[in-house]
Design a protein that fits this description.
Length: 485
């Protein structure tokens, strides 16, 4: 619909009036999920923060901030703040990729975004990633060389890019924009950020949504391979229970076992058209590539649906579809995650708290990922400097703040029991487990409306989530045309 210039000016002035009093200059901008994605109108600015919190007059970082205004011209005073996963993902790009899931909340609340220090456009701590390390071809010596080269070219001291430092940045942003309180929504690693902000600043935390929960008392590391194996076993079991899938792929578990044996003997050379660049290419598809592809395909129901077909095709000699999926996933991750920030978090907040003597390495070796990922993390962290961490960082969050915890029963990295670990000292919570859903619930079925209701009422006990029982789960593909009708 066309509007007159006078009406447009009136609406523009109303939007300005809806903003809190700001000590941070914001300008009209557009944010997006990346090149080729549509832009979203917002107000953007840069928040200056000290690199070292103990040296406020020292080196300053520019942290990118965006506010997507509420649709209501008289919004609620407390915005929603989403935190991206990773660690290493930027929250602005994350929001833009899932913006439709946040629209029910945005009816009445601003969306406040900040790229966590070291991610996105906030002093990004990235490393040029050699294709060999992406493909898992580096041995320990090469990994050390790459890690040292990464450290040598980082623009800032990597010690100051931890969660404990980042939550203080958000509190400074809240004060600069004059918001009285915040509603927090974290997904995956972002749940760790949300819990730590709520711990440090309970008086300015109104509600918390934790999606794919990382419990504070559990450092991530060896459990990744075990949970990924559990998720893949559940995919095979679900296929066996599905008449169409079982009829088409009656031995998908044996297909996977045969593939693992084949690529463990040596990589397969796969010629394909690169799904990202469109150029002819060749890749070596070995055991590490197979593990990475299957683990990441297990994250979401839409990609889970094609796993049996991809494995069956590869087991019968056609590696192209599986290799193409691997190529797309790896390229996407390399673009989205800031590796330097990722290492700063993992080497400060996770690896130092892992009891190596308690690890069942025999159980790890039996998984399709094996010990490779954990040993690579150990190698990286052997030279990566550790940063500040709060004394109570690894304790469960004890709070009466309203908390909504979300899990997928098929999540390959943060299963429902992780949320149960996190909520032990939460006195005002609700844990929703969605059947056959993977990692990340915010866009699943009617969950956007459920989240909006929770934030509006701040009452987890009376939340109605029955609509999720009717949510669509993608059926298994029996061929590349899709599922059976």
């Amino acid at each position: 619909m066309l509007r007159t210039s006078a009406l447009a000016l009136l609406l523009f002035c109303s939007l300005l009036a809806a903003y809190p009093t700001s000590a941070l200059e914001l300008e009209d901008c557009r944010i997006s999920a990346g090149p080729g994605y549509p832009g979203i109108k917002a107000r953007c600015g840069m928040l200056l923060r000290p690199l070292n919190p103990l040296d406020p007059d020292g080196t300053q970082l520019e942290l990118r901030v965006a506010v997507v205004p509420a649709l209501n011209l008289e919004p609620e005073p407390d915005p929603l703040v989403p935190f991206a996963g990773g660690p290493g993902g930027g929250s602005i790009q994350f929001y833009a990729g899932y913006f439709s899931a946040f629209e029910p909340v945005r009816r009445d609340r601003d969306i406040l975004l900040i790229d966590q220090r070291g991610t996105g456009d906030s002093a990004r701590m990235d490393c040029p990633v050699d294709d060999d390390i992406i493909d898992g071809q580096f041995n320990d010596e090469m990994t050390l060389e790459f890690t040292q080269a990464c450290l040598d070219q980082l623009p800032h001291d990597p010690r100051f890019f931890t969660t404990s430092v980042a939550v203080a940045d958000l509190e400074a942003l809240r004060q600069a924009l004059g918001y009285p309180a915040l509603n927090l929504l974290g997904t995956s690693y972002g749940t760790r950020v949300a819990q730590q902000y709520a711990r440090r600043y309970p008086e300015t935390t109104r509600t918390v949504v934790l999606d794919g929960v990382v419990p504070p008392q559990l450092p991530l590391g060896p459990g990744i391979a075990l949970e990924a194996q559990r998720a893949v076993d559940e995919i095979f079991a679900r296929c066996a229970e599905d008449a169409a899938c079982n009829d088409r792929f009656p031995e998908v578990d044996l297909d996977f076992a045969a593939l693992r044996s084949q690529v463990e003997e040596g990589p397969v050379i796969v010629s394909l058209t690169d799904p990202v660049t469109g150029r002819p290419t060749e890749i070596e598809f070995g055991d590490n590539e197979l593990a990475a592809a299957i683990r990441l395909l297990a994250y979401q129901p839409r990609s889970i649906a094609i796993v049996p077909l991809l494995l069956n095709e590869a087991a019968n000699g056609n590696f192209v579809p599986l290799a193409a999926q691997f190529q797309m996933i790896v390229t996407s991750l390399a673009d989205a995650l800031a590796l330097g920030m990722h290492n700063s978090v993992m080497c400060t907040e996770d690896l130092p708290y892992i009891d190596r003597d308690a690890i069942d390495f025999e159980a790890l070796r039996k998984t399709f990922i094996g010990v490779m990922q954990f040993e690579a993390l150990e190698t990286i962290c052997s030279i990566w400097p550790q940063g500040p961490i709060d004394d109570d960082f690894n304790e469960p969050l004890a709070t009466d703040i309203p908390v909504l915890l979300l899990s997928g029963s098929a999540d390959p990295i943060t299963p429902p029991r992780y949320a149960e670990m996190a909520l032990v000292d939460m006195s005002n919570h609700r844990h929703i487990v969605n059947t056959h859903q993977g990692h990340g619930q915010i866009a699943a079925g009617c969950m956007p409306e459920v989240i909006a209701d929770f934030i509006a009422t701040a009452d987890p006990s009376n939340l109605d989530a029955a609509c999720m029982e009717r949510s669509f789960i993608m059926p298994f593909f029996v061929d590349f045309s899709g599922p059976t009708p």
